[in-house]
Amino acid sequence: NSRGTSSLLKDSISFTEASAAGLFEGHDLLRRGFTSVKNELLPSHPLELTEKNFQLNQDKANFATLRNIQGIHAPLKLQMEFRAVKQVQRLPFLHSSNMAMDILRGNDESIGFEDILNDPAQSEVMGEPHMMMEHKLGLL
């Protein structure tokens, strides 16, 4: 055999690529839903990316305005508060309103689409608490 053992080693799968069940694990239809290659490649509408990044773009504009008016310390302080609020979470199976984040962004006095039609408490799907915690901790 002219290929030798070094070429055989190149054809094998490295240990870092194969996790405990990652190599043979199938798509989890219950957690991730149906897959579509077309949806993974291209957005379904030209405005979809703009809508996905709306809050990020809004925050950038607000930070730039705040920096021009009050100086660099104001947006840094606000970003630090955002990070602190994001770290405080409920258990994954409990509904969280994220009221502190709404107050920081100034959305606490407005009613939006997500306030009425995106209420997780009204969701038809309620996960099992033990499975959701194991999934969050990476045990499942």
Short overview:
One of its GO terms (biological process) is proteasome assembly. The chain has about 140 residues and is mainly alpha-helical. The protein has helices at about 5-10, 30, 35-40, 50, 55-70, 75-85, 100-105, 115, 130-135.
Give me the secondary-structure topology.
Layout: H1 4-11, H2 29-32, H3 37-41, H4 48-52, H5 54-70, H6 73-87, H7 99-105, H8 113-117, H9 129-137
Helix pairs in contact: 5-6
Question: Could you list some keywords that capture this structure?
Answer:
140 residues; mainly alpha; 9 helices; disordered N terminus; Ump1; POMP protein; chaperone
Describe it.
There is one protein chain. The protein has 140 residues and is mostly helical. Among the domains are: 43-88; 90-108 and 127-139, no CATH class. The protein has 9 helices and no strands. It has helices at residues 4-11, 29-32, 37-41, 48-52, 54-70, 73-87, 99-105, 113-117, 129-137.
